[in-house]
Amino acid sequence: MNFDARISKLTDILQRHDCPAIAMVPGPNFYYLTGVRLGLMERPTILIVTATGDIHAAIPALEKDMWTARMPQARTVFWQDADGYADALSELARQTGLTSLAVEGSRMRHFEAAALARAFGTAPEDGTDMLLPLRLNKDASEVAAIEKAVQISEDALTATLSEIGAGQTETEIRAKLLINMLERGAEGAAFNLIVLAGPAAADCHGVPSSDRRLQRGDALLFDFGATLNGYSADITRTYFCEEIPQEHRPLYDAVQEANRLGRDMTAPGVTPHDLDMAVQQALSDAGFAADIRHKVGHGLGLDIHEAPQLMRGNHAPLEAGMVITIEPGLYRPGMLGVRIEDDVLVTDNGARSLTRLPRDPQVIG
Hints:
The protein is an alpha+beta fold. The chain has 10 helices and 20 strands. It has helices at 3-16, 28-34, 64-70, 86-96, 110-120, 128-131, 140-161, 170-183, 249-265, 272-285; strands at 21-24, 46-50, 55-60, 75-79, 102-103, 125-126, 188-189, 194-197, 219-224, 226-228, 231-232, 235-241, 297-299, 306-310, 323-326, 329-332, 336-339, 342-346, 351-353, 363-364. The strands form 6 sheets. It has a 6-stranded mixed β-sheet. Strands 8-9-12-20 form a 4-stranded mixed β-sheet, covered by helices on one side. Strands 7-10-11 form a 3-stranded antiparallel β-sheet. Helix 4 (86-96) crosses helix 5 (110-120) and helix 7 (140-161) packs across helix 8.
C-alpha cells in the first residue's frame, strides 16, 4: 500500500477546500493513511495531516514502539497516563502552528473535539463531507483485499449450508458460519452476522436468537461478511428449508430480478439516484411496493457502509474503482424477508460482481 500517495490525496482535498489541516482518530481513515489499526478508547489518539503534507500526532505512550516503527515520519508527542493528555495536545498545537483545523466529525467523539478546541484555541470545523472522496475509488490492492474477503465469506457459507437443517437455532447456525470463516483465513466478522429464520427474516437487521429454530418451509436469511486486512465483504442470501412455499416464490423472484437489474445497470456515469429509482420501481411494478424497506445499496471498503450511498437524491455519478453493494429486499412482517446482496466493482466500461454465490432460489436441509 502506497501511504505517501494516500497522504498526497488527502492534501489535495485539503487544498481544494482551503483547509489548513484535519485531525482524525483511530478508524478507517486513520488506518487508510497510516496502516496502523488502533481502537477508540479513553486515551485520545490524534492524527493531524496538514495541507502541506506534514504529519503530526499525539499518541499514548503505550503505543510508542509500534507507532515509531510504522510512522517514523510523523512528528509525534507521546503522553503518559499519569500526566494526562492536555499538555500533549497543547504541544501538538504549538508544533503545528495552526490556529484552525477541521476534524473527522462523523467519528471523533465530543471529548476529543473539545480537548482540541482548548489546545488550539478555536472550535474545529466538521470535515466529514470533505473527507468523503478520500476512499471513494479503490486501488488494485484494496479491490484484491475485498475480493479475497468475499471469497472467504462465500466458501464459509457454502460449507455452513452443508452442516445445517431443520431444528437448529439461528445462533447455532451463526456460530458455524463464523467458525468456517475463521478457519478459512478471515481476521474476523465484518459486523455482527445476521442469521434469521422464518418470519424473523422480515426484520432487516434482526438479531439471531437461541430460541428460534429453523423449520420446514422457513426462509433462512444470511447477511454476513468476513474481514481481511481491514477490508470487508457484505453479502446477503436467502434460502428455504426443505421446500419453498408457493406463496413465497413471487417475493423471491421479484428480488432476484431487481438484483439482476441493479447489477446490469451499474456503470460509470450512472447516478445512485437513477439506480435506486430503477430497482425500487421494478419491485413496485411486481406488486410489492408496500414491502420495500431500504435503499438499493451503499459503498463498501474499510467501512461496511461508506460513500457512495445508493439512494434517491444522490446525483453524483458512479466512477470506476468504486465498490458498492446491490441489495434489493422485500419484507413482509409475520411471513418472511428476502434480500439478495452482491458486492460489485464499477469498472471502466461497466461493472463486475465480486460475489459469485448462486442467486437462484435454493432449498437446504
